[in-house]
Specification:
Blueprint (H helix, E strand, L loop, with lengths): L1 H17 L12 E6 L15 H19 L4 E4 L9 H10 L4 E8 L9 E6 L5 H11 L8 H4 L22 H18 L4 E7 L2 H4 L5 E8 L3 H8 L1 H21 L25 E2 L5 E2 L32 E10 L17 E5 L2 E9 L2 H13 L6 E6 L2 E3 L1 H14 L1
Parallel strand pairs: 1-2, 1-3, 3-6, 4-5
Antiparallel strand pairs: 4-6, 7-8, 9-11, 9-12, 10-11, 12-13
Helix pairs in contact: 2-9, 6-9
């Protein structure tokens, strides 16, 4: 009887709360709220060397700077821009009062297993695994530091499994757009950060539950993993993550019908990666895909500039034969390596990847030379240029390339 009463009560609250926005879909992105998780007396996850609150703030500020410089028609609001404690309901309140069009919450992950690594993005909904529930509990536990949390959250207990039954009845009116952004963030992370893709998930996060716009929570990596903690602490790592989220924002902005052309996004840093096995994915229609199907190994198509060796003239390369290129363009259709866009560039190649035509320049033997070439390309106007690695004709991650180089050196 108690559960029946609770269900009807929650359902009534949900109808009252959600009815004004049912059927609405954001058709413009003018205001974005960036939420740096934790802060002040709430350190969040504590790694071996750093606290989560410091990493989330650093990434949030970098992300806001990129959006402001790249999209002058967009207003950026931070829930916090310094080390201070902001209650969860107030974070959502900031977004709601400012009538934000988008809410992005930045966090870091942790797990007793130091081997776990990678980035995952969450949208509001019912958890589909104990792991997702545990992450929601960890992030929601911040309310225990609030003096009036029982009143502010209607008696919600972040450590009680029973409390999360309320989320079985809650469906965010902006689930489709939230999921679209979450999936796009994961895609951009795959190409730019070097982090393992852990997919898009649903879980009951209070900070998302209270927002009235498309909202996502990004777990940018595991502070419990020593290598990933080092990456998250680094200036480059933070810039790569901010860059990936910013590019995802750009893609969503374009998709919601914004025709204004964004300003040149100078200063965005990039890094390449091929995803490892993607785990749970929530599709736009809330379809659960428990496991990614086995990938068929495909060789990317690579063509060269007229006058250099054609593909059939290039001898087969061993798996350990590495080279690095700088990716300078991604197109939905083949614009050709002789495009005026690439005039004056050397060793231009095209390869197919993730359904897109991607163009590179250079064939460098070391990452350092490739990074030097990347800076040259950025000065020439290819502001989104970033380094990619190939083993023979197969694209691999920079991390995989480093490991192959290390293995080669050990075998000498």
């Amino acid at each position: 009887m108690r559960w029946i009463t609770l269900i009807f009560l929650v359902l009534a609250i949900q109808i009252i709360w959600i009815s004004p926005i049912l059927g609405q879909e954001k058709t413009t992105l003018k205001t974005v709220v960036i939420d740096a998780g934790h802060g002040g007396k709430d350190p969040g996850t504590i790694g071996q060397k750093v606290q989560e609150k410091k990493i989330t703030l650093a990434i949030a500020l970098k992300l806001g700077k990129l959006i402001r410089s790249g999209f002058q028609d967009v207003k950026v609001i931070y829930t916090r821009d310094k080390d201070e404690f902001i209650e969860l309901h107030e974070r959502a309140g900031i977004a709601n009062r400012n009538k934000a069009d988008l809410f992005i919450s930045i966090h870091c992950n942790a797990n007793p297993s130091h081997a776990l690594h990678g980035v995952e993005t969450y949208v509001m909904g019912l958890h589909r695994s104990e792991a997702n529930l545990d992450i929601a509990k960890k992030e929601n536990s911040s309310i225990l530091m609030e003096p009036d949390y029982t009143r502010n959250y209607n008696g919600f207990d972040p450590n009680s499994d029973e409390s999360y039954i309320t989320f079985t009845l809650f469906q965010n009116a902006y689930l489709d757009q939230s999921t679209e952004l979450a999936a796009t963030i994961q895609d951009e992370m795959k190409d730019r950060t070097g982090l393992n893709d852990r997919g898009v998930h649903q879980a009951g996060f209070l900070v998302l539950y209270k927002t009235t716009m498309p909202s996502v929570l990004v777990e940018t990596g595991f502070l419990s993993n020593p290598e990933e903690e080092k990456f998250l602490m680094s200036e480059n790592g933070q810039e790569y993550i901010a860059s990936a989220i910013c590019k995802a924002f750009q893609r969503l902005k374009e998709n919601v019908g914004k025709t204004a052309k964004p300003a040149d996004m100078k200063g965005i840093h990039n890094k390449s990666v091929i995803p490892a096995k993607t785990e749970t994915i929530v599709a736009a229609k809330n379809k659960h895909v428990p496991e990614e199907p086995k990938k068929q190994k495909k060789e990317p198509e690579i063509t060269t500039l007229s006058g250099s060796k054609s593909p059939e003239d290039i001898p087969p390369q061993k798996a350990t034969d590495l080279f690095f290129c700088v990716q300078i363009a991604t197109e939905p259709t083949d614009i050709g390596i002789m495009s005026k866009k690439f005039a004056g560039l050397r060793d231009v190649r095209m390869y197919r990847h993730q359904g897109m035509y991607k163009y590179t320049t250079g064939t460098e033997k070391t990452v350092e030379d490739a990074l030097k070439l990347q800076r040259e390309m950025q000065k020439k106007g290819f502001s989104d240029a970033f380094v990619v690695a190939f083993s023979g004709r197969e694209r691999i991650t920079i991390e995989q390339a480093r490991k192959l180089i290390s293995a080669q050196e050990k075998n000498k």
